[in-house]
Amino acid sequence: MTRAARWDDQELLAFDLETTGVDPSRDVPVSYALVAVEQGVVTSWDAALVDPGREIPAGASAVHGITTECARREGIALGIAVRRIADSLLDASVRGVPVVGMKVDYDLTMLDSCYRRETGRGLAELGFRGPVLDALVIDRHVDRYRRGKRTLADLCAHYGVDISHAHDASADAKAAADVVRALCRCYPDLQSASPWDLHVWQKSWHREWEVSFAEWRALKGLSPIADGVSEWPIAAAHQPLAARVAV
Question: Which domain holds residue 104?
Answer without folding.
Answer: 3-219
